Amino acid sequence: MASINDNFLKLKAGYLFPEIGRRVAAYAEANPDKASQLIRCGIGDVTEPLPLAVREAMHKAVDELGCRDTFRGYGPEQGYDFLRKAVADNAYAGLDISADDIFVSDGSKCDTGNILDIFGKGNTIAITDPVYPVYVDTNVMIGNTGDADESGRYEGLVYLECNAENNFVPAIPEEKVDIVYLCYPNNPTGASATREQLQAWVDYALKNDTIILYDAAYEAFIQDPDVPKSIYEIEGAKNCALEFRSFSKNGGFTGVRCGYIVIPETVTGTSSTGEKVAIKKLWSRRTSTKFNGASYPVQRGAEAVYSEEGKKQVQELITHYMGNAKLLREACTEIGLKVFGGENAPYVWVACPEGVTSWDMFDKMLEEANVVITPGSGFGAAGEGYFRISAFNSRENVEEVCRRLKTHLA
Ligand code: MLT
């Protein structure tokens, strides 16, 4: 008899985005005349084509694989040197991060889940609420929590409430936690954290021997020059923080898959015998056994994001999506809704009209406006009463969403 990992039975429902997909598919099947009018602003999936520089680099890499002299088999598990170096030189210029600190992967969703492999049992883990659901579910799966209560909160996790009063950046906890997940610019609220706020988190982490898991997947969308793009801009962060980044949203790699974790040598955890051990060493070891690297053409494509042409083309994509975010913000504001985010992030976070729940809003938008949004409560109990609109879409679709918002919610 093969026993199963019972922790999976604690998971409350299906993963948020497939669940939304299921509800949308059921609606489309029951209303075939409406199916072609649906506009999807739920999952944050890019819509615009891959930058030309990326495509050219990938084509070239595929051709190399087609030739005996330039063919490559297994690559280094931690990523090719050319990409690790391009990341360190471009994304971390001036921040004293070396190529050797970069661990290339097939994306941040996997990385933020897989990182739990190297941490022990019994850590006190803090997450924000609302939150990217992957952080919660992966902790449930690995056995770091008890059961969920009625609001969906799991026993054993420390929930850091984010709300309009704290601008969706949580207060530093009174208690000591061992690991905290922070994501800025934030998914789902679109909020950004100031240098002072991040400094307070780093100071807390250094004082309490806490590791910060900093998800910066949306850093490319930051418009305000005063908002830090990396946790390593904050003094002391190299001693307490790992940073997760992705090519999904800047380079349009959601389908191509490539991301990386930055792990400075100076971030340590503690063994059961009290010895300080470099996280980097453990992650490198774990990677060698469990991963064979992102594919060569994909890594060449990612490298091209940092070429002169690549940078220009990525900037055009960012400008496009942030233009969408601005239109969505304006439309929601015009009809009297309270709007957050969308200024340094591709997500617009909107308060539902008084008395309307997040899932009611989801149904209303689907059935009346034929627009798919994400219910805020899907990201945690504190997301109740909000909904998220993704700015990842064509301009034409976003303009149509704005018209429909004004027609159906004004
Ligand atoms: C989202 O919509 O929250 C994102 O697409 C999730 C992800 O990047 O995995």
From TrEMBL:
Reactions the enzyme catalyzes: (2S,6S)-2,6-diaminopimelate + 2-oxoglutarate = (S)-2,3,4,5-tetrahydrodipicolinate + L-glutamate + H2O + H(+)
EC number(s) from the headed UniProt entry: 2.6.1.83
Molecular function GO terms recorded: transaminase activity
Domain annotation Aminotransferase class I/classII large: ranges: 42-405
Record keyword Transferase present: yes
Pathway given in the UniProt record: Amino-acid biosynthesis; L-lysine biosynthesis via DAP pathway; LL-2,6-diaminopimelate from (S)-tetrahydrodipicolinate (aminotransferase route): step 1/1
Superkingdom, natural source: Bacteria
Named cofactor requirement(s): pyridoxal 5'-phosphate
Annotated keywords: Aminotransferase, Pyridoxal phosphate, Transferase
PANTHER family: AMINOTRANSFERASE
Protein name: LL-diaminopimelate aminotransferase
Gene: dapL
